[in-house]
Amino acid sequence: MSESETPLAALRAAVREHRMPDPPLRRALLESDDTALARQAGKALKQLTVDGDQPRQVEVALLATCTIGSYEPLLRAQLVGAGFLPTLRAADYGTFGMALATGRLAPEGDPQLVSLLMDAGYFLPGDWHAGDPDALEKHVEARLDEFRAQLAACLEHTAATVVVHTVPLPAQVRDGVISLGARARVGRMWYRVNAALLGLAEEHAQVVAVDLVGELAEAAVPARDARLHRYGDMPHTDGALLLLARLVRRVAQAQLGLSRKVLALDLDNTLWGGVLGEVGAQGVQLGGLYPGNCYLELQRTVHRLREQGVILVLASKNDADAVERALTEHPDMVLRPDAFSARVVNWSAKAGNLRQASEALSLSTESFVFMDDSDFERGQVGDELPEVAVVSAAGDPAHLVDALLRQGWFDVMELTDTDRKRPELYRKRAQRGDFSAGFGSSEEFLRALELSVEIAPANEFTIGRIAQLAARTNQFNLTGIRYDEAATRRMSEDPGHLVLSVSVTDRFGDEGIVGALWVERGPDVWRVLNMVLSCRVLSRGVENAAIGWLAGQAREAGATAVEGRYVRSPKNSVAASFWTDAGFAPVASPDGDSAESAPTDFTVAPATAAAVTPEWIALNTRSGFSDE
């Protein structure tokens, strides 16, 4: 987008040219609080189609207890801002209960997400007696039970993820009760309603609950518009709808693999106040009173992110020895040197340093968030690495934590043990890189690593991690099919299918679950529906060990062939030769389609593929496979 071009003009140009809006423009969509701009942007983007390589697509059904108002264009603008190409389908007015009860959420088929838009009028009676809070409470509880039953019925008919939200209580209801004691009781009743809505996520694996009421408490926007409510049954303001659209977009990011794994941080005026080279370690602002307490709180927040699996990278233009002393010796420092999985401290351009860190970690820069106070540094990274999510640390340091967390870049559907271990896993990966420098060949290095691969059937403890790998793995993703948690669970329970996790350990420690396979088991043919493997274990032969083990199981079961498929994507070229390298032969397409993006099928006799497990890998398998 040029400086003279307005955001709307740039969006319309992208629509005309059948391409996704540029990353800076998408960032502007995410960060803007201008509801009029977001609404117009969402309307302009309704006709967006993309030629060539397709972005991540998402289909969302919208069900509302009221008139949907501007929610559809606001949500579309947020989803495009996150990098999605969305399809939104709004149900007809007045069909909320019927759509839930029947599970008919979209006429064109099952969507990936269902966003429910609810208002207080769904739970409250049309007329009620302020002097009889018992009757009001019974009515609200009955409506809540009815909603629960409708939602449970819906989930029996769909594999979609359903997003529910907490509902603000109208001030006219609260203030219409003049007894202070009774007013408190009505408020307590409504808190129970919202607590029950949040609790639905614990009752149903397919439900995600978001706290719109909590967001409204922090935002300077009114929740309701009395005139629009009476005029057109539109109780929510555009400001409230934009907050909800952001929350639903964050769910889509987490579910469909657009969350980030890495947080790259500047130091001066980001993790501490002041310039280290000018004031020394003893002079930086950290802890104590303002502004030092702001930087301390940011470090505490970053540390909590690390505890939940976010990989930290230090990217600072500074003297490395001075940084080491500050991180080690400053008494208020929360982030000590070992908190960072990679450190790139020098005087080089930060875009190049982020590339260096991504190579050291074997993670794409698409998984990076970069936080810096310098407009120049953020601009340079944004220009050279537009795929990196850029967060500003400029301005009042009191807003640092909000700036980092607001867009939900690190949200996940479920936090797994592997997530919690990830920062240390990647720190050890850097150690492996140093270890490999002392060997004359890659095979010598791999033998010295003492690799062990464990294959295990999916279970209640691993399904979440397996689904997460499906959503977030791009490079070694053979078909691009992203089975979510519900689909993975159903497949794991079906005797005609097999879902496997792949775990790796070596001399440096446990890598955790790094891969997964979804397999259709027939009497004669076992077909690999998809296989994914984390990029951090590529080039070690883990993928060959997994397919070799699977082929051995197919042979024992009496199958005569193992089949697989490769579907090219813009990011999975590293896996293009996997099947042929494992001894599989391509199968001619029945329609003779030779397009570069056409799926390619492969087949092999199980005995042949079983021999591809590398000699340097020890295979460990859990018991129970032969009995399935």
Automatic annotation (TrEMBL):
Coiled coil: none annotated. InterPro entries: FkbH_domain, HAD-like_sf, HAD_sf, HAD_SF_ppase_IIIC, SGNH_hydro_sf. This is HAD-IIIC family phosphatase. It comes from Streptomyces lateritius.
